[in-house]
TrEMBL record:
Cross-referenced Pfam families: PH
Cross-referenced SUPFAM superfamilies: PH domain-like
Identification of the protein by name: PH domain-containing protein
Highest taxon, organism lineage: Eukaryota
PANTHER family named among the record's database cross-references: PLECKSTRIN HOMOLOGY-LIKE DOMAIN FAMILY B MEMBER 3, PLECKSTRIN HOMOLOGY-LIKE DOMAIN, FAMILY B, MEMBER 3
Coiled-coil segments: none
Amino acid sequence: MGGRIKTWKKRWFCFDRQRRLLAYYVDKEEAKLKGVIYFQAIEEVYYDHLRSAFKSPNPKLTFCVKTYDRLFCLVAPSAEAMRIWMDAIVTAAEENTRY
């Protein structure tokens, strides 16, 4: 879901353990970087069980990544993909707090 304008847009996410961030792009060609989420800024990652993401295209596959300054609401393509992304992001954020 967009930051300023709260509409849903497809984005391509790349998990970068070396640089300790999630980068997101307009599409999978990764030509235009839209933003980054630094692991150190992540406060929590959770399944959107309260359905707080406005008009999610698929509420059952929606999860949130909360940082110090923004709430990112994401929709995974499947339940398995959602679990994998959530586990990877939580693990990376926890590892980053050790440094």
